Amino acid sequence: MKIWKNVIAAALIPNLIMAQEKIKFITLDPGHFHAALVQKSMYPVVDNTVHVYAEQGNDLKWHLDRINGYNTRAAEPTRWKEEIYTGKDFFQKMISEKKGNVVVLAGNNRLKTSYINESVKNGLNVFADKPMVIDDAGFNLLKSAFVTAQKNHVQIYDIMTERYEITTMLQRAFSMVPDVFGTLEKGTTDDPAVTKESVHHFYKYVSGSVLTRPAWFFDVKQEGEGIVDVTTHLVDLVQWECFPEKIINYTKDIKMIQSKSWATKLTPDEFKLVTKETTIPAYLKSIQDKEGNLDVLSNGAFTYQINGLFAKVSVIWNYKAPEGTGDTHYSLMRGTNASLIIRQGEEQKFKPTLYIEPRKIDGITAINIEKAVAEINKKFPGISVIKNDKGWEVIIPEKYKEVHETHFARVTEKYLDYLQNKNMPAWEVPNMLAKYYTTTLARKFAKQQK
Questions:
Q1: Cβ atoms within 10 Å of 381's Cβ, excluding its own
Q2: Each residue of 159-180: pLDDT tens digit?
Q3: pTM here?
Q4: What domains lie within the chain, and their CATH numbers?
Q5: Residue 434, Cβ density class (10 Å: 0-12 exposed, 13-18 middle, ≥19 buried)
Q6: Taking a C-beta distance cutoff of 8 angstroms, is the pair 342, 331 a contact?
């Protein structure tokens, strides 16, 4: 397929941003708190003036409040200066003025793909929160956007924060040590070789405060169904861990096996508490039951094959986490010698913890793990292991245990490096397409199987 060959080259085309030029952010229609998290840190190569284009309303207000909070905090305050335009023609105004060179997108997903497409058409780079697409039409438009980006020498990149979680990085590192992990098994439909599960909550704390969700977040026509939202991260990790630096060709390497989606029920009071709305908007009436509860199609699970490997991903949204807990992650990679498992349950005090569980525990296994730890210490000094009844627990120094919010700085720094040094790997663009092909295909299967 020609388009796939074209998008591989997109990552190699020189970018217009030169190393000596300041990068200037444009924040477009910031409806999601991830837009602000990009600015929780300062970056030497980024101009501290950010041009914001959006309609007046709560989404913009909450965004600016968060930026102001970062600017006025006691520890390491930021120095962002927000220049704001709030006319109804905000998008056209952004395009005509071009006061920056990188469009930061994190908000209502209904228009996100068209924002991406029009931005690159007009010579602007795009740094977008997930998901970049929520349906088939969006995926087809994204394909076109990558071709346009190649022609205009600009880059599109999505914010894959989970690659910077230390347990995930170490799971990937140990999986690349044959003497410990062996080779990745293929698995079956009923027993996949790779499983990734994520549990999220509508009511949560961000930057020390209870997060206010916009009402549209609960409308899957605007936010996207759960099966195409958080699963973006999980599919990305399957590709990134199982096939490091390998190009995934979605036209032949992906096969959907089974898929399903289901709703989370919110009471009217829960909805009003988390959104601070006094009434339920008309566009949500269609998902209300007789008691007025909202059935939000926020959960999804699917099993698929990627390069012959059977993988399963699932996402669950609850209203609120039990006291002292939060969002959780489970990840299994099964090799011929050992399984690598990230658990985050009560036993782990709800902190992600990596385990190595060999099929056979003997002196040779212990020696191989000791050698692997020594090698991994060259990149991650201080990593160690302790023995347990199933194998070994990986002990990670506190200095590596960054909160999720900090990961936004890490992925932003990576993207800035790509922009300045024109060194985006050849696999990034085709694998973004493979990722969104997978999630939108899962959505289609879920609807068919219902």
A1: 10
A2: 999 999 999 999 999 999 999 9
A3: 0.93
A4: 2-159 (3.40.50.720), 163-403 (3.30.360)
A5: buried
A6: yes
Q: Give burial (CB, 10 Å; 0-12/13-18/19+) of 419.
A: buried
Answer for the pair 240, 163: CB distance below 8 angstroms, yes or no.
yes
Which residues are CB-neighbours of 123 under 8 A, at least 6 positions away?
A: 16, 98, 152, 154
Residues with Cβ within 8 Å of residue 76, at least 6 apart in sequence? none
Stronger pLDDT, 7 or 329, i.e. the higher one = 329
Max alpha carbon distance in the chain (Å)? 69
Q: Which of 262, 280, 272 is nearest to 318 (CA)?
A: 262
Residue (of 163, 159, 157) closest to 196 by Cα position? 163
Gyration radius of the chain over CA positions: 22
Task: Please say whether the beta carbons of 330 and 351 come within 8 A.
Answer: no
CA 129 to chain centre: 7
Q: Evaluate whether 157 touches 415 at the Cβ level (below 8 Å).
A: yes
Q: How far is C-alpha 180 from the geometric centre of its chain's CA atoms? A: 29
How far from 382 is each of 5, 395, 397, 400, 443, CA to CA, in Å?
A: 42, 9, 6, 10, 42
d(CA 410, CA 430): 22
Per-residue pLDDT at 250 exceeds 90: yes
